[in-house]
């Protein structure tokens, strides 16, 4: 992506914070085997400030949506702490294969990180780290379900593993579901973030990505 394309995806901005609509397929940081990342665009996202912005949290490479960045070192530390303390409300949308056993509920299953083929994945393990995700059904169609999910913790691939545990893996999830179809991408989107800071409420919503729209519309979504 070009610098102008990245800055054009800013959803919300203050003197010390940016909320970006991260595109699916773009890693947030440099890693072995990753030829491009959001970090490559930090200079463009500086927007006149002396310091480069920093990631307050992370999204998987193939997950789109709301990503919060701190524009100053002091604010970045505050935001990191808000996320670590569970004081940021995160809302995700997913389209899953099939349907969960109940239209809404809570998955409370510990997760353990494991290394497979050079990549980190997670598995359900009672001896792992506590992990919980709330979910509710927003619609269904064509053998799939549109879910709203609210992770209470922030474990690696938490939503994807918990959906697979429910028997309804996220569409396009090659790691925890079935192989993706031709041109099919992960149908997981960080829909919204909300948090309180200095007596003010910050609430930001990201529009669903283009690749999810056909499945969402089949499940009842209307723009």
From TrEMBL:
Alphabetized Pfam families for the sequence: PseudoU_synth_2
Keyword Phosphoprotein: no
Keyword field contains Membrane: no
GO MF annotation list: catalytic activity, acting on RNA; pseudouridine synthase activity; RNA binding
GO terms classed as biological process: enzyme-directed rRNA pseudouridine synthesis
Keyword annotations of the record: Isomerase
Occurrences of domain Pseudouridine synthase RsuA/RluA-like (ranges): 17-164
Leader peptide range in chain numbering: none
PANTHER family to which the protein is assigned, alphabetical: MITOCHONDRIAL RNA PSEUDOURIDINE SYNTHASE, RIBOSOMAL LARGE SUBUNIT PSEUDOURIDINE SYNTHASE D
Family indicated by similarity: Belongs to the pseudouridine synthase RluA family.
Name of protein: RNA pseudouridine synthase
Organism of provenance: Aliidongia dinghuensis
């Amino acid at each position: 992506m070009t610098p102008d394309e990245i800055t054009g995806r800013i959803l919300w901005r203050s003197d010390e914070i940016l909320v970006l609509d991260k595109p699916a397929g773009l890693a947030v940081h440099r890693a072995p085997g990753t030829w491009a990342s959001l970090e490559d665009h930090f200079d463009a996202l500086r927007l006149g400030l002396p310091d480069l912005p920093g990631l307050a949290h992370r999204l998987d490479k193939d997950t789109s949506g709301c990503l919060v960045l701190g524009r100053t070192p002091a604010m970045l530390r505050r935001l990191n702490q808000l996320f670590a303390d569970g004081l940021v409300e995160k809302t995700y949308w997913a389209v899953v294969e099939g349907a969960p056993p109940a239209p809404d509920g809570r998955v409370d299953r510990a997760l353990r990180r494991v290394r497979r083929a050079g990549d980190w994945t997670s598995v359900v393990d009672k001896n792992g780290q506590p992990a919980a995700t709330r979910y509710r059904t927003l619609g269904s169609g064509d053998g799939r379900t549109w879910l709203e999910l609210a992770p209470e913790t922030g474990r690696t691939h938490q939503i994807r593993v918990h959906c697979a545990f429910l028997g309804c893996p996220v569409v396009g999830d090659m790691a925890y579901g079935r192989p993706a179809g031709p041109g099919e991408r992960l149908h997981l989107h960080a829909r919204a973030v909300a948090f309180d800071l200095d007596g003010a409420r910050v609430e930001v919503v990201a529009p669903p990505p283009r690749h999810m729209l056909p499945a969402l519309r089949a499940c009842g979504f209307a723009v």
